[in-house]
Here is the input.
Amino acid sequence: MEITLRAPGTPIDAMTLDDGLHAIGRAPDGGLRRVDGSDGDARVWIRVDRCGTWLTVVDGVRGVHVNGRPVRRCALLRAGDSVHVDGTEIVLTAPVATPDASASPVPLAAAAGEGADPRVVLRGVGGRHHGRSYTLDQARALSAGCIACEGGRLVLRAGGDVGVAVNGAPCREAVLRPGDQVVLGDGQRFVVEAPLAVVPDEAAGADAGAAPAPGPEPLRPTARRLPLLLVAALLLAAALSALLLL
Here is the structure.
């Protein structure tokens, strides 16, 4: 997932995070900018690797927060997170799919005509719903709209005056995928979660309909192996008897 920083009015606004290390420090005007980091001018480091996106706070730096919570050393980031460094907000954004005809389906429906997979949940990670999880096998009303399964896709449609952002991008409607973060303007944060077994059909490629490869055949005793085991057992018993007679 491509992640871009959003920090209006700063040199790092619209900066794309490629794989590797990115040092963020102070700009001459007191804002934030990308720095070399080799001479100790970094305030935080952002590392992108195959395991995810990581924030590391430089020793001695204070006042760094992720989604309103202080971070002293490091934190795992996801698209939609709000990072505050020296009073400047940085929002991690990622592309959002819209529910048009070209959007690829999300495999959240158990079968045609059925509701979404009950293992897919909306987990609260901020606001008054923090720590709670809600199944998405039926439509869920939010303070800013609703989330419902439409044609095998999990669709969020915003309504009312409360703003909605998906993966850090403001939107009115979006197709949600596992891992997406939904933030409502009233301070509520949710993450869409699903088991690893729920994967897109197209991810399997041409082998999607192929039968699974046969596993190794379980080991079974054969007529040739069985006598050898009996001989070994008899020899062991004879050796023990001889030791007892000594």
The domain at 121-201 is CATH 2.60.200.20 (Tumour Suppressor Smad4). The chain is about 10% helix and 35% strand. The first helix runs from residue 225 to 245. Residues 101-114, 198-208, 212-225 have pLDDT under 50 and may be disordered.
